[in-house]
Amino acid sequence: MKNSITAVLAAIAIVFSVNTITANEIKLQTTTEDVLASGELQSVFDNYFAVKDALIKSDAKSTSAKAASLLTAIGAVKMDKLKSNEHTVWMKVVKKLTADAKAISSNTDIKKQRESFKSLSKNTYDLIKVSNPDQPIYKQYCPMADADWLSKEKAVKNPYYGSSMLTCGNVVETIK
Questions:
Q1: CA atoms within 13 A on the CB side of 76
Q2: Can you tell me the distance from the alpha carbon of 55 to that of 143, in angstroms, rounded to the nearest whole number?
Q3: β-strand pairing of 170-175 with 147-151
Q4: Which of 12, 86, 161, 171 could form a disulfide with 82 if both were Cys (CB 3.0 to 4.6 A apart)?
Q5: Could you tell me if residue 175 is left (phi over 0), alpha (psi between -120 and 50 degrees) or otherwise beta?
Q6: Are the C-beta atoms of 102 and 133 separated by less than 8 Å?
């Protein structure tokens, strides 16, 4: 009888150990997927910032080239790798992001590029807001252009007016 009880207790201990190991593996897998999903949009964000920086310099040719790279990054996003909230927003904004990036890349008129950048910024904001960036992102606003943009830096560098009004604007939100 004692041996039977000992065997049953040993079996129960093994089952609990296996369940704990399985639960830890599932938790680790979920955490890894979250890290990968966050990285899935990073190229889109990096290319957005490159477009913004080219607009700050009022360099239409460079802006066009950076927007072409953004277009490539948008096309490379693997939707099945996105977290569910990112996927929901992605589905809402991907067509507009693509259209804005195409409009900027196919144009060498800086005024038209800046006009398309307004919409690009709005849709990128919606996406970055749900992606929980690993560093603070600053949403900035220019009253003269009546438009927002995103920046990795708190210091205002206005992409809508470049050097003519470089510091026009202010930080309206910090996304963490």
A1: 14
A2: 17
A3: unpaired
A4: 86
A5: beta
A6: no
What residue type is 52 in one-letter code? K
- CA separation for the pair 107, 162 (Å, rounded): 18
Concatenating the DSSP letter of every residue in 18-49 gives HHHHHHHHHHHHHHHHHHHHHHHTHHHHHHHH
Task: Identify the CA nearest to 53 among candidates 160, 171, 173, 159.
Answer: 159
- Listed residue (58, 165, 50) closest to 101, CA to CA: 50
The Cα–Cα gap between 121 and 45 comes to 10
DSSP secondary structure string, 54-84? Answer: HHHTT-HHHHHHHHHHHHHHHHH--GGGS-H
Q: What is the pLDDT of residues 73-122, one digit of tens each?
A: 999 999 999 999 999 999 999 999 999 999 999 999 999 999 999 999 99
Please state, in angstroms and as integers, the Cα–Cα distance from residue 106 to each residue in 46, 111, 167, following that order. Answer: 20, 13, 28
Specify the amino acid at residue 70: L
In 3D, which of 31, 33, 98, 36 has the Cα closest to residue 67? 98
